[in-house]
What we know:
By secondary structure, the protein is an alpha/beta fold. The chain is 36% helix and 15% strand.
Amino acid sequence: MGSESVRLNVIAIGGRHQLLHIIPLALELSRRNMIDCRIFVADDDERNIVLQLASRLAIDAPDISVMSLGPVGSKLPKKIARLWKWRNELRSADALLSAERTSTILKRLPGRCPPFLHILHGAGDREKGFEPRLGLFDFVFTAGEKDRQRIIEAGLQDESRVAAIGGIKIAVTRALPPPPKLFANELPIVLYNPHFSRKLGTFHQVAEPMIRQFGGTDRYNLVIAPHVRLKSTMTPSEVADWNSRSGENILVDMGSDRSNDMTYTRSADVYIGDVSSQVYEFIIQPRPCVFVDANDTDWRDDPNYRMWQFGEVLSPDADFVAAADDAIAQFSRFYDLQAKSLRDTYAGLEQSSGNLLKSAADLAETVIVQLGSNGRSRQ
C-alpha cells in the first residue's frame, strides 16, 4: 500500500447473518490503493466464510484477524470480551467500519478512537434499528433512501453524515447462480420467515399449525426458515427436533447458511412473515406476501410496520393455505406499492451487481479516506 493509504479496520463480529452486508464491501475496498484494509472476525469458521467470499468475488483477501479470547472472556459476553481484549489493536487504525453497534463501546473507552463508520445490516422497519447508538458513529451508510431519511428525521445523524450506497448483500446474491432445487416436485413454495423476538415474532404460535396445514395439502411446498438468531434461544435438542420436522413438502431450517444467503427468499413464491427485514430481500422480485400479527397491533400509520402494506395481515389462527391462495389471487393490489418501496429501500438497483458493489465502494472510499486522513492529522 502507498504511504498515504488509510488504514481501515473492519469489525465483523455481529454474527454470520451480518457478513454478507459488510464483507463484500470490505473486500472491494481492499482493492483500492487508498485503503489498507484488515478484517476482524470472531472465529475460524467466519474467517473461512470471508475467504470463500473473496474467492467468489475473485478478490485477493486482505489480512484477516480472528479475535481469539483469553481468560478475560470468562465473565463477559463474548462480543464485549473480544472488543475489550482487542481494543488497542482495533483502535490503532485510521478508521473503523462495522455492521453492528456493540462495538461503539470503543468510542466510549478511555483513549483515542479513530473515526468510526457504520453500515446498516438489513433494511427493515423495526424501531430498534433506529436507536441512539447510531449517533455515536462518525458516518452511517444505508442501503437506500428510506433508511437514510428515517435516521435524519429521528435526529440520530446530520444529513451530511448519512449516505445511501445500495444493498451490499443484494449486489452479491444477485450475481450468484440460481438457488438449488429445494423439493422434488414443482409445487409453488411458501416461505415462513418469522423474527426471533418472542414479543414480535410468531414462530411459537404459528410454526406447528402451519406444518399441520401445509402437510395436509398437495398444492404447496412449505419452507420454515426463521431468523437465524432464533436458534440461540433454544437448546441443541430443540433445534434438532425442529429440523427433523422436514418432510416431502415441508422443509424446516433453523439456521443453516441457506437462511443467510437468500436461498429461500430467492426460491419462494409466497412470503409469510411478521417483522423480519428479510421481506425486503424477498421483494427484490415483487411477489405475494402475508403477515402475521400476534399482538393485535395498531400498525397502519406506524413506520415500524411499513412492510405490512405489502400484503394482508392475519391473526395467528388463520388458515395459511387459504391465505397463500388469496395472496396469489390478489397480488396485483400490492405490486405497485412493493415496487415503489423497493426503489426507496435499495439504491442503485438499476446497475449490474458488479457495478453496484463498485459504486458503493467508490462512495465509501471517498468518505473513509476523508475521515481517516482528517483523524490522523489530528493525532
